[in-house]
Amino acid sequence: MRHNSLSTLLTTGLAAATLMASGQVLAYGAGDFFTRVGVAKVEPKSDNGSLAGGAFTVDVQDKTDFAFTLGYRFHDKMGIELLAALPFEHDIALNGDNLASTKHLPPTLTLQYYPLGGTDARVQPYVGAGINYTFFSDEELAIGELELDDSWGAAAQVGIDLLIDENWALNAAAWYIDIDTDATINGAAAGTVEIDPLVVMAGLSYRF
């Protein structure tokens, strides 16, 4: 599922680039602030571990919602970007039954490299690496009380801007985020939930 989403993202981006009219567009460069806004799908990995000594297998469900980023280019080829979003609410299946849920906020800060930065190329790919902090809230469990600890983890990113004019671009991006949270059920330590999602986002980019 992850490979299909990433392949679709890149294929769509390249196809859109070939349809854009030829001509030069001023690319993003040093000193630019930008925002990216769109719809993001959070796809946790397929095996999220087990709880209560193996009594419950865990399956964290996918979720799609609004997301946005804020970024700054401190060099033609280098920048930083913060991924933010509305709280994502995930159903959690235990032994195949949806018995739990949680909300989380996953702000993710990445240092980015733009190989074509500072040029007038309409297609501007980039890669990034950084750190994530995930805040969990509103945990619910049908068979008791659930608590999930906040999480720190590494993050990696790949994306592409398809420039429309000096301010606007189409954008597609994907992040891999390391999210592991310790779970407590009815006050007792129950194990670790390994979410480790792929986040795929598509939308618009605007340069200020």
UniProtKB/TrEMBL annotation:
GO terms for cellular component: outer membrane. It comes from the Bacteria. The keyword Disulfide bond does not apply. Gene3D superfamilies: 2.40.160.20. InterPro entries: OMP/PagP_B-barrel, OMPW. Residues 1-27 form the signal peptide. Keywords: Signal. One of its GO terms (biological process) is transmembrane transport. This is OmpW family outer membrane protein.
